[in-house]
Amino acid sequence: MQLSQRAPSWRALLAMGAFTVLVLPFAAAADETSPAAGLPLEEQVQYCGFCHGSDGNSTQPGTPSLAGQPALAITNQLIYFRERLRQSEIMTPQARGLDDEEIQAMAAYYADQPVAEPEGERDADLAKQGQEIVTSQGCASCHSSDYSGREQMPRLAGQREDYLFAAMVAYRDRTRGGPDTTMIDIMRGISDEDIEAMAHHLAHFDD
Amino acid sequence: MTLPVFTRLTLAISAASLMLVSTMSAAEEEPQPAWAQGRSAEMAGSSLAPHATPMTTTAEENIPVDDIRLPDGFSAEIWANGMPGARMMALGDDGTLFVGTRSIGRVYAVQDNGEEREHQIIAEGLTQPNGLAFKDGSLYVAAINRILRYDDIESQVADGTISDPEELTDAFGLPDDEHHGWKFLAFGPDDRLYIPVGAPCNGCEVDEDSHATIHSFEPDGSDMQVVARGVRNSVGFDFHPETGELWFTDNNQDWLSEHGPNDELNRVSEPGAFYGFPVCHGIGIVDPDLGSEGSCDGVTMPVATMDPHSAPLGMRFYDGEMFPEEYQNAIFIARRGSWNRALSVGYDIQVAKISDDGERAGLSPFMVGLHDPHENDFSGRPVDVLQMPDGALLVADEQNGAIYRISYETPDYDAE
Fold first, then answer.
1. Is the ipTM of this complex over 0.85?
2. For the whole model, what pTM was predicted?
3. Residues of A with CB under 8 A from a CB of B
């Protein structure tokens, strides 16, 4: 299939456990208080940067970029992790013990970071196919016409393609916990192939 | 008598325009968020969407208590704050105030040492634990779709350690729909627990015994009865201090029109009565999709109506001794404020005064100032009210995670 011809499959990378290896520095966070809690912002973002990229543009398969996300989108997700409303073995320990002001400061920092160029080559056919589905699904009505996000709705443009794919699949399969159930309805019944195309279009979206 | 004719005409015109809008919407079957259900094709580009509720603490200096305006003699102060998403309130016998939330999933307990209030989080990670009721030492919490009972809760709060609650979810057997699935809770004078089940949609056909209803149960979840039918989404009710009748607010359908249908205040004079959803809204507006001629026949009409989309939620009768006589047995109603109209409305406390025959009510503003109609903006969202033993009125502001205390002193107009 097209995807595997472009680059080493990120899904294969995920299967190989590339993700887990990079997360190891945090294995000690068993006391349920984030290692970043209470630190100055510049040190906190170094912790985040291990996985999410030093400038908020993630180069790690499966890990989303935070650069250019609406501040409220980051704030809400961190609070969902902290409150155990969105279950994640990785992120909940990072968020426990962060107070609201710390979360809001980190969110504001990442909202201000410029979005990097996407990894990989854009496939015009796949992007066009994705564009049609993205349009018919009405994604822009919440995520803005340039897919830069709005309020609590995250930026999609320039997000990692593998993360977009995994997130949309997780919504469809109802394996992504958390209070944001709107996306479950949107993604219901969409095939893996269509989601691949959507993710490709959005990751390479350039207005 | 020109007024009634004019009113009927207005209704006819607005019903006709509603029908026009809906014919266009029927053709459109695109995937969309739950809140957008019923939005017509021509409204597809509309920026109207629910306002995000902050899940973060509002600093005390930013809480808009100074915006609040009240009738002469009344004043408002910040009674408690720092509780993001504060929604429905219930008071324990020993004075602990319990506060539910929606998206942040917490239940708070506030203790008053006489000078200041301290709060703690007694439950977290729940799905929209909005409804709370207190009875015989126990706190009942309604989340989606769970019913939990925390026994001997006030001494647990005093100790600062909260045991796992009794899980009554299976005993109550409520549906688990997320849409309009958050609950209000209250015990009636019959010692039964009253629980609404909203319509799982903006507008749709429902099973009239399971959805768009208000139910009552024995406290253990047995002996379910349907108290009211055709109630789209009630998130507030109380019982008349003298008659014991159930009165409730109801939120009507979105996207039908900027100016309709009105939200409602209702009264249950006949258990199991039908209040119109999904075929008849407000005062006699037939639903353009699901209704037909005669759909409003036999529907129990509201005792009063409120601005369309203004979102009346928590409401309580007042029978305290602090406020002037004219407020006895009146109802205070918190209006969270609109999102589904371009010109915003609500964000206030209304007072409903009941007619002598007990069958109708007249509304007027009581607490205003959080809504700025000039800027079409708001600084707070009142969602519930609660009368304290001294007769003061607490108001929960979900936007700011704050609770205001409204008190009264007879004004001295002669003083400088």
1. no
2. 0.88
3. 72, 75-76, 79, 83-85, 100-101, 103-104, 136-138, 141-142, 151-152, 179, 181-182, 185-186, 188
